[in-house]
Specification:
Layout lengths: L4 E5 L5 H12 L10 E7 L5 E8 L2 E7 L8 H15 L6 E4 L4 H5 L4 E6 L2 E5 L3 H13 L6 E6 L6 H11 L4 E6 L9 H11 L6 E4 L23 H20 L3 E5 L5 H13 L6 E5 L3 E2 L2 E2 L2 H9 L3 H5 L7 H18 L20 H22 L7 H19 L6 H21 L4 H12 L9 H8 L5 H6 L3 H13 L6 H12 L3 H7 L1 H16 L3 H13 L5 H16 L6
Parallel strand pairs: 4-5, 8-9, 8-11, 9-10, 11-12
Antiparallel strand pairs: 1-2, 2-3, 3-4, 5-7, 6-7, 13-14
Length: 585
């Protein structure tokens, strides 16, 4: 009956196809989770879904086979298809999240069970878990008899995290901290691990371990990253804890797991509850440590992220140790670039809707560029975070490396070279002040930026250099050496005064355009056109509407005008505003 069947991708972006998969999985008491690819088995031209399975990175999931196909070998064909697709995506070692009754199917393909729960099992077809446990075992040698573990995301690392580690470390000979490796957080895995290492450096018996796919990951605990309880949550938690108890804890020789109490997040609170229920039965004690509070409020990473989203570094600083500060500054800088990019419409500039006067870049190009240079913002922040300002050659080398990363991400397109210079100076100046005085005021920041900029000479061979040689205008370096006088005296107060205005960024951009000698415009169209652009921006600001701004965008695009210098200064204004208290502007 089913000799003529077809395995094909089911387009989950189509509402009707997605609903078909949802209904099919529901009949098997499964739900559709986030997958990159979903394949279905169909009989002939019939559009009835008979079997299906999904692929999310290197994890197979959402696999179900209707009763009419269970003895036809169709399961093997479906799994073979999914493995082929996974390998074509570069995944040789795979995991599968499936029902216990499917164990035999995957054993035929070399998979073995690494964790179990009443309603699901986790399997893999390589030696990934064994290799990770061997790595952990190497760290655990000669570390005393009483060993404990904390699994920590630290997004970002706060005073609360530090308190938890300090308290737990007093109860064991060695405390292992496993960093959640899954990159689904505001801060990357590399940043979070570095923050933890710096934040616990004073605790002699704390050892920070590499993260893996075997502790609170998309494979073991995908609902953790959704931050909401569901029917699947308990199954995911049970799998994650079973894997920990059977493999990770023995590799470290650990007999106790620590966690902070969780009064706020329901998913983490449930995780704690199941740790208390399940771990002791497998020979591992669970110790919950009361979370620390400040001014009656729990110190948590969520509050820090909320402060950053509100563009308030001062609000975030009181919740984190000194060692976390550079990472917050870096995040605010990258966010400022993203806010500028997201501002739509803009005259002649790339935004969410169009490419403006540019033919070599678009929103995707600019977004990739921001992601590529963000790690270098962090390096610049760390370079500035010291008693003395870094030498110009150190900053220049970081700038060169950041440019290389930018060009690699954009295919050779210069998307943020100007922003790298201006934002880089501000980042270094900001973290230097925070290291030495724990706060930033406008006057000190402006003076420090100027001090840094005076260490640089005007580069030759650039578009800006050509404009400066032909016209009497101030370039990017001169503006920086002047401490961005217009920004601090005009643009920043104006931007701050528009708090709550939905067109705050549009209007601030127009004010900047009306005052800035934009060498990007001068290079493309000449100094006379640059002056005309200033006049047009001033006129539109005096009689502002989004419709008129859209018309200016069309006009600038047709005339090949791109006020890129204005865009850079808008990003810098956003960034600097987030660093300082309003009363210092």
């Amino acid at each position: 009956m089913f000799n003529n069947f077809e395995i094909r991708q089911v387009p989950l972006s189509l509402k009707s196809s997605r609903q078909k998969v949802v209904n099919f999985l529901a009949a098997s008491e499964l739900r559709l989770e986030d997958v990159d690819y979903y394949a279905g088995v169909f009989a002939g031209d019939d559009d009835v879904l008979l079997a299906g399975g999904g692929l999310s990175g290197d994890v197979l999931k959402c696999i179900a086979v209707s009763d009419v196909l269970r003895d036809t070998g169709m399961s093997l064909s479906l799994v073979s298809h999914l493995l082929s697709v996974a390998q074509s995506h570069g995944h040789q070692q795979l995991k599968v999240f499936t029902k216990p009754q499917n164990k035999g199917i995957f054993e035929n393909f070399g998979f073995h069970v690494i964790a179990t729960a009443p309603k699901a099992i986790l399997m893999e077809n390589g030696n990934g878990l064994r290799n990770y446990c061997n790595q952990l075992n190497g760290l655990a040698r000669d570390k005393g008899e009483n060993r404990g573990v904390i699994v920590m995301n630290a997004n970002p690392f706060t005073l609360g995290h530090r308190y938890l580690v300090e308290q737990a470390a007093t109860k064991v000979d060695t405390l292992f901290i496993i960093v959640v490796k899954e990159d689904r957080s505001l801060f990357s895995y590399a940043e979070r691990k570095a923050m933890i290492e710096a934040g616990v450096a004073h605790i002699a018996n704390a050892v920070v371990c590499e993260g893996s796919d075997y502790a609170i990951s998309a494979a073991t605990f995908p609902t953790y990253f959704l931050k909401q309880l569901s029917d699947a949550t308990d199954t995911h938690i049970t799998l994650d804890l079973d894997l920990f108890a059977k493999h990770i804890a023995p590799a470290l020789g650990a007999t106790v797991r620590f966690a902070g109490s969780e009064p706020l997040d329901a998913t983490t609170r449930r995780y704690n509850q199941l740790m208390a229920e399940l771990l002791p039965a497998q020979g591992i004690d669970f110790v919950e440590i009361e979370r620390c509070a400040k001014n009656g409020n729990i110190v948590c990473a969520t509050a820090v992220r909320e402060a950053l989203a509100a563009q308030s570094l001062p609000q975030a600083l009181c919740l984190v140790p000194h060692t976390t500060v550079p990472y917050l500054v870096s995040q605010l800088a990258a966010d400022a670039l993203q806010q500028e990019l997201d501002t739509t419409p803009k005259p002649g500039l790339v935004d969410r809707v169009d490419c403006g006067a540019h033919t070599d870049m678009d929103y995707g190009t600019m977004s990739r560029s921001i992601r590529a240079i963000h790690p270098y913002f962090t390096q610049l922040a760390l370079a500035g975070f010291s008693k003395t300002l870094p030498q110009a050659n150190v900053l220049r080398q970081l700038g060169i490396e950041a440019e290389k990363a930018m060009f690699a991400a954009t295919g050779g397109v210069n998307t943020h070279k100007g922003a790298l210079f201006s934002m880089g100076l501000a980042i270094v100046a900001a973290t230097h002040l925070l290291f030495n005085q724990n706060s930033i005021d406008a006057d000190s920041l402006q003076a420090t930026i100027a001090q840094l900029a005076l260490r640089f000479e005007q580069p030759s061979g650039t578009h800006g250099h050509q404009v400066l040689a032909q016209n009497k205008v101030n370039g990017a370096l001169a503006s920086a050496q002047n401490g961005y006088q217009l920004l601090f005296s005009h643009w920043l107060p104006y931007y701050s005064g528009l708090d709550g205005d939905p067109q705050r960024l549009h209007k601030t951009l127009l004010l900047i355009m009306s005052m800035l000698d934009d060498t990007n415009v001068a290079y493309r169209k000449g100094s006379d056109e640059m002056i005309h652009v200033k006049e047009e921006a001033r006129a539109l600001l005096d009689d502002f509407s989004l419709a008129k701004l859209s018309k200016m965008n069309s006009d600038f695009t047709a005339r090949n005008i791109s006020p890129g210098g204005g865009a850079d200064m808008l990003s810098l204004t956003i960034f600097i505003s987030s660093l300082i208290n309003d009363n210092s502007i």
